[in-house]
């Protein structure tokens, strides 16, 4: 019977267990969005995960949407990440970088006065995260086809930089209402060209990004992060089952390293549809505990389970699961902060 603690082939990579550290924005980068020594300590503490998917990382200055999140477009950022990947590898860990463009989920204050970009000039509902004073999201600038081509080049450049920084692969962030997801959903994409309208057209941008990154890494080192039926940042699609069936079929043909689905497990979830169309490694995430994760692996509904908040508070989560030990509780006030409190100061079992 398969357990969470057995090895797993993830594309071209073999990982030691099926407990994945989910990518989580923690806002601890230094000036210039350079990964910090504090971040190195944070990831190094969690190197026992079968695979770490490092936090969402902006591919260009235009891609940012949060204060103090890291980037991967310049040499200083590459060097900062290199310190982290070397530390994780020294502890026999594996780590992918999540490549990120937030699209319309940003603000001119974060973009040197520039207007955020999106598939269509439709504003995200709500207010910009973490900025003061509070303000609504602005109406974004609709991308031209030439600008779309430039962004795909930015993804490829970021993938090259991730390789130079020593990562084991990259994950495309195509979820949670950010730029790729904005192209996928017909509520945010009302284009009338090759990137809008039909499902294949709306998914075109995702596959061009995947293929551009695969030119650097090969498809076996490129994962894709999805949120089927997700409503994050005003996302909504009129036919999500058809949309994600098409996506799964295309990713199956490309034999990507993995598909990561963030969707709460229930009887009608779209992840089950994806599982039928995609035979590669499937990672699931959202509100899993040890028991639900074990049942999911044993039933074959997924190959691995990613944990977010449990990894925040438990750097030794794998050991705690293996020995069925109690978990530390997270401090939500420190999720998006600075300094070590609520970041690198959670005790391991050896320190308790």
From TrEMBL:
<dbReference type="InterPro" id="IPR045247">
    <property type="entry name" value="Oye-like"/>
</dbReference>
<dbReference type="InterPro" id="IPR001155">
    <property type="entry name" value="OxRdtase_FMN_N"/>
</dbReference>
<dbReference type="GO" id="GO:0010181">
    <property type="term" value="F:FMN binding"/>
</dbReference>
<protein>
    <submittedName>
        <fullName>Alkene reductase</fullName>
    </submittedName>
</protein>
<keyword id="KW-0560">Oxidoreductase</keyword>
<feature type="domain" description="NADH:flavin oxidoreductase/NADH oxidase N-terminal">
    <location>
        <begin position="4"/>
        <end position="328"/>
    </location>
</feature>
<comment type="similarity">
    <text>Belongs to the NADH:flavin oxidoreductase/NADH oxidase family.</text>
</comment>
<dbReference type="InterPro" id="IPR013785">
    <property type="entry name" value="Aldolase_TIM"/>
</dbReference>
<dbReference type="GO" id="GO:0005829">
    <property type="term" value="C:cytosol"/>
</dbReference>
<dbReference type="Pfam" id="PF00724">
    <property type="entry name" value="Oxidored_FMN"/>
</dbReference>
<dbReference type="GO" id="GO:0016628">
    <property type="term" value="F:oxidoreductase activity, acting on the CH-CH group of donors, NAD or NADP as acceptor"/>
</dbReference>
<feature type="region of interest" description="Disordered">
    <location>
        <begin position="333"/>
        <end position="352"/>
    </location>
</feature>
